[in-house]
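Shift notes (night). Ran Tetratricopeptide repeat protein while the centrifuge was going.
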Amino acid sequence: MNSYSQDALQQLEAGKLDEFNQTFKLALSNDSDDLLFSLAEELYSLGFLDQAQQIYQQLLKKYPDEDELRANLAEIAISEDQNDLALSYLSEIKPDSPSYVQSLMIAADLYQTQGLFEVSKQKLLAAKKLAPDENVITFALAELCFSMREFDQAIPLYLNLIKQGITELSAVNLVERIGVAYANAGRFGHAIGYLKQIKLIDMTPDVKFETAFTYLQLKEYKQAIAVFEDLRDSDHDYPTLYPYLGEALEKLHKEKDALRVFQEGLGVDEYNETLWIKAGDVALKLGENQQAEEYYRKGHHVAPDDLNLVIKLSNLLVQDEQYDDNIAFLNEYIKDHAVDPQLAWNLATSYAEEEDLEHAQTYYQLAAKSFDDQPDFLKEAALFYRSIGQIDTMLPLLKKYLTIEPTDADMDDIYREYH
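Came back to this:
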């Protein structure tokens, strides 16, 4: 003859909720405490938290010293976002209780959900000290350190489990986890040893990315490209892959392929300033200066405060002798930004070429503070001051230049002419 608890579970399985509710009440009144405890565990696993809570509360009144009931009630309270109630139950479980380690684990989970990761970590460390051989605690601590990006602390914890032959816990592949942890810790040689044990078909997109990135750091460009392309084929909208896939292709001198990859990436994420920069850089390598300028300008539109982009575009405009455009572009930029030394130099060059001598002098003086040891700048500035007859300003610049480039006969002749 079935107990009321057994009947209730069967009715639940059959979807007879009205009958279940009636039978559940009979179980509460008539079944043994052991049967009720088992029923509560089943109901909790099925997501019927209210009913499980009723049973645990009823049993706790009868067995006030059973801290396992408090721990279970705390878990239910957390599931229902009743955090204060959960902490109340946990605070009643004392360090000498057999359920104290369990209570520390539950508290760690609660604090982690609240974003209090350091408090959570302290709870897990306390639990591990009390139960050093409990794998569930080791795993929980490893996962917390991993989520906190404390990879050097997570790695030995994962290793501890793997050395025991445990390669999966709570549906988490530990070989995959430790590989990603090693990669994020910059220990790429160790990382790839684990990551390449996993078949591509079994990898998540994030793990594929980490694997490809690891190959890239190890300069194994063909392998990196293969994994990045597999990621692209399986998840075309994964934007982070495109800059690195293009970079790997560039390393193999496949600039045209790299440019196509950057263009494809921009189709996925047009606000990715890194892609605009890389597209401009590779277009420049290919001698497509106009196309490079277009990429830099679009990137600047996306990220107007990105100084790297501003410098690249300004350098290109100076290189292509678009001095008016450079002056207009940089004057717009420096309305809201400090003048970077390289931009000051570019402005000095542009104003000098446009024969605006007053502005040219201003920016040569400004740039000189940062480039007084750069031979290209010293030579250009010296020749500028010579052209406007400021020999006293020219001579110290020329002297510095000749200290760095003593074999430049033409500049040495100029120096001797005035010295």
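Residues 87 and 338 are 52 Å apart (CA to CA). Residues 372-419 form one domain.
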